[in-house]
Every structure is written in structure tokens, then in C-alpha cells.
From TrEMBL:
Residues 20-430 form the Major facilitator superfamily (MFS) profile domain. Its main location: membrane. This is MFS transporter. Keywords: Cell membrane, Membrane, Transmembrane, Transmembrane helix, Transport. Residues 431-452 are annotated as: Disordered. It is a multi-pass membrane protein.
Length: 452
């Protein structure tokens, strides 16, 4: 691999930090548009299209399980894409993951239904969902590494937060697309209407490719490759020198359970016969919460650049446990004003604290040579558990699916490991980029790197 040498500690070329942040934002928005339209469809459409309509409760449970399948595939994708991201560079993985997501999502829109091909329909659905999971496994880790390594000193939190702002933007876009789709007459919705958002992924792939192919590789990766060469087996180095931080990231990533419960289970619960709220209204709750999150995430990240990663992450993790309880209670009352208010507070404001800071918090735990692998593997194992949290919530909610308090307590319990992970982690917001992860290396008994 031929890369230009970069002076140690050199800053990114003028304009590159903004270009990297923009590429991360737009790419993540387009990528997670694909990922989250599946979540909306799994809650509202797929139980009737791909599963047995004679047993609605089981059909919903199986549909939500397919949502979790992608999270099970994520750790495998993280191992593979993390390996190549630390060997070939961040840019190549960012382009590949976007193209794979666009293709797999488009294919979902083309699938035959259960009425047409029987049990083959859900099998094909699961296969496409696995491809989505593999793609998502490398997307955030590569975008985080790209923005962190391009970011100027003292602003890594702000610039890396664009990856998660993009995720929220993609979720907002997916919700806005589904609002008019969900308002279609039932017959049109179930025959062709649900397919339209998935077909739009063709535009996702094209736009994402154009944006990301023009981005330069990061100075940190170029310097590492030129001076020391890339690591032959990043996973071996990662587990030898950074195993404790990988465990912290896994525990911290369980905070994503708040997102999956909010966007999928709560949506299915609110629109079920037990509560009877309208699909359109509940989709608007998610849309408005994401609008608020778009503003809150960079603000929380900016605060983290000033006071540190740990306190901001702790606010988000502990606060989400409380506000999710309030949100599910509000949904159970059937009150639209309460549901909108608590939904925006929980997902738009409080959860954004943890969501906005974790890209920098996790990425700063690792050295450049294993950063993408560390973030990808750690987050995707944690996200896998978060994905299946929806399925467990459906079981915990009882045969009628209306025990919201049990789901709230379950979600709160999943916020405890992130709190412990943050309390045990180092504070890194003032550590120079080229020195990140060095303490872990010294603790592992390796020679300390000498920096100029």
C-alpha cells in the first residue's frame, strides 16, 4: 500500500475536517435511512405481509425478531470490515458499506410476499436483513475514525458527533417518508405502498458514492502506514493491548437499547389495540424527537469538548433510564400531548447526550492502528444485544403486549452497564490525537512510544 508520509502530529489539510464531517453526516444519514425504514416497516407492515395474519401477536413478534437479525450479523461484519479498515484505510470501507446497504435495501422492496411464495418470503427477508447488518457494522466505525482523525485539536467531540447527527437525520428522513405511506388506504399500503421507501435506496447509493469518493484518507492513518506500516492482524493487537477498552465499549453500546425500544417497540405498542394511537401521530413523535436531536447532539458534543466525555455520557445513560419510563407511561395513557412531550425529552434531548459523545469517547480509547477494529467490534457486539432488546421487550410485555412498566424497567436495567463503563473509563478529551491509546499500550507491558 502506497501512502504519502505525514509529519508526526501534522494537522489535516485545510477544509478536510469539514469535508470529513460532511461525508460522515450525509453518508450516515443515507445509510441509516435504509436501516430505519426497515424498523418502521417491521413494526407496522411486515407482520401482515411476510408472516401469518391469523396470529397477529406471533406475527408481530417474528417481524420484530427480523429487525434484531441485522444486529446479530453486525459483530461478524465488524470483524471483517474492522480488519480491512485498519489495513486498507477508512475511505474504502465507508464507500463499500454505503453501496452494500443501498443494494440490500432495494432488494427488500422487490421481495415477494408470503401470499405469493409462502415461507420463502420471510427467509429472503432475513437474508437481505443480514446484508444490512453487515453494512451497518462498518459504517459508523469507519465514519467515526475518519472524522476523529481529521478533527482539529480540542474539537474531536464536535466533529465526530456529525456521524450520529447523520444517523438521526437518516432516521428523521425515514420517518417522514413513512408518514404519507402509512396514511395510504390499507389495500394500497400492503400491496405496493410499503415498497416505495425501499426502492429509493438506489438514490442513497449514488449520492453516497459521489460524496465519499472525493474524501482524502486521514493524516493519522497515512502517517501510521508510512512510518510503521499497517498491522497484519489488527484483531490480535486489539485483544492483546486494548481488551479492557473493548469490554467498556461493548457495555457502553448497550445504551442503543433506548433507541431500538423507542423507535420500534414503543411504536408497535402505541398503535396496537391495547392503546389505539394512530400510526401517523406516532411517526410524528419520532420525527419531532429527531429534529430536536439534530440540534442537541452537536451541543452535547461541544460541551464534552470542554468538560470531558464521561460526565456528558453519564447524563445521557442515567437520564435515559428515567425518561424512557416517563415516555412509555405517557404512551400507555393514550395522551398525545404527554406522548409528544416525553418522547422529545427522552429521545431528542436526554438520549442525545450519550449518543452525541460516544463516537469520540469510544474512538479515543484506541490507537490509530486498531481504532476502526476496536470501535467496530465493541459497538457492534453491544448493538447486537440492543437490537434483540426489541424482541425481549415484546416477550416481557406479556401475551397482550401491554405491560409497558416491565419494558421500562428492562430498558433501565440495560442503561446500567453503560454507566459502569463510563465510570471506569479514562478521560481523554485533552489527549493529543497521536497519543490516544498509548496508556493502554504501556499498561500491557509494551515499550512506550516516543513522540516528537
Amino acid at each position: 500500500m502506497s501512502v504519502p508520509a505525514t509529519p508526526r502530529g501534522a494537522a489535516a489539510p485545510p477544509g478536510q475536517p469539514r469535508k470529513a464531517a460532511t461525508a460522515a453526516w450525509v453518508g450516515s444519514a443515507l445509510e441509516y435511512y435504509d436501516f430505519f425504514i426497515y424498523g418502521s416497516a417491521a413494526a407496522l407492515i411486515f407482520p401482515e405481509v411476510f408472516f401469518d395474519e391469523s396470529d397477529p401477536a406471533t406475527a408481530t413478534l417474528l417481524s420484530l425478531a427480523t429487525f434484531g437479525v441485522a444486529y446479530a450479523a453486525r459483530p461478524v461484519g465488524a470483524l471483517v470490515l474492522g480488519h480491512f479498515g485498519d489495513k486498507l484505510g477508512r475511505k474504502k470501507i465507508m464507500v463499500f458499506t454505503l453501496m452494500l446497504m443501498g443494494l440490500s435495501t432495494f432488494l427488500i422492496g422487490c421481495l415477494p410476499t408470503r401470499a405469493q411464495v409462502g415461507t420463502l418470503a420471510p427467509v429472503l427477508l432475513v437474508l437481505c436483513r443480514v446484508l444490512q447488518g453487515i453494512s451497518a457494522a462498518g459504517e459508523q466505525a469507519s465514519a467515526n475514525s475518519m472524522t476523529l482523525e481529521h478533527a482539529p485539536p480540542g474539537r474531536r467531540g464536535f466533529f465526530t458527533s456529525f456521524t450520529l447527527s447523520g444517523t438521526q437525520g437518516g432516521q428523521l428522513l425515514a420517518t417522514l417518508v413513512f408518514i404519507p405511506i402509512a396514511a395510504l388506504p390499507e389495500e394500497q399500503l400492503l400491496s405496493w405502498g410499503w415498497r416505495v421507501p425501499f426502492w429509493l435506496s438506489v438514490a442513497v447509493a449514488v449520492v453516497g458514492y459521489v460524496i465519499r469518493r472525493k474524501l482524502d484518507e486521514t493524516p493519522a492513518f497515512a502517517q501510521q502506514a508510512a512510518e510503521e506500516g499497517v498491522v497484519k492482524l489488527p484483531l490480535a493487537v486489539l485483544l492483546r493491548e486494548h481488551w479492557a477498552d473493548v469490554l467498556r465499549v461493548i457495555a457502553g453500546a448497550l445504551i442503543a437499547s433506548v433507541s431500538t425500544i423507542f423507535t420500534v417497540w414503543a411504536l408497535a405498542y402505541a398503535t396496537s389495540d391495547a392503546v389505539g394511537m394512530s400510526r401517523t401521530a406516532m411517526l410524528w413523535v419520532g420525527a419531532l424527537a429527531n429534529v430536536v436531536a439534530l440540534a442537541a447532539i452537536p451541543l452535547w458534543a461541544t460541551l464534552a469538548d470542554r468538560i470531558g466525555r464521561r460526565p456528558v455520557f453519564l447524563i445521557g445513560a442515567a437520564g435515559s433510564a428515567v425518561t424512557m419510563f416517563l415516555y412509555l407511561w405517557a404512551v400507555s395513557t393514550g395522551s398525545y400531548p404527554l406522548t409528544f412531550l416525553t418522547g422529545i425529552l427522552c429521545f431528542g434531548v436526554v438520549y442525545s447526550a450519550a449518543n452525541g459523545v460516544w463516537p469520540a469517547f469510544y474512538g479515543e480509547m484506541f490507537t490509530t492502528r486498531v481504532r476502526l477494529s476496536g470501535v467496530a467490534i465493541g459497538t457492534q457486539i453491544g448493538f447486537a444485544a440492543a437490537g434483540f432488546a426489541v424482541t425481549f421487550a415484546a416477550r416481557i410485555a406479556g401475551p397482550d403486549g401491554d405491560d409497558w412498566s416491565a419494558v421500562a424497567l428492562f430498558t433501565a436495567a440495560l442503561c446500567v452497564p453503560p454507566v459502569i463503563a463510563a465510570l471506569s473509563a479514562r478521560e481523554t478529551h485533552r489527549v493529543p490525537t497521536e497519543q490516544l491509546g498509548e496508556r493502554t499500550t504501556r499498561e500491557a507491558g509494551q515499550p512506550e512510544k516516543v513522540t516528537a
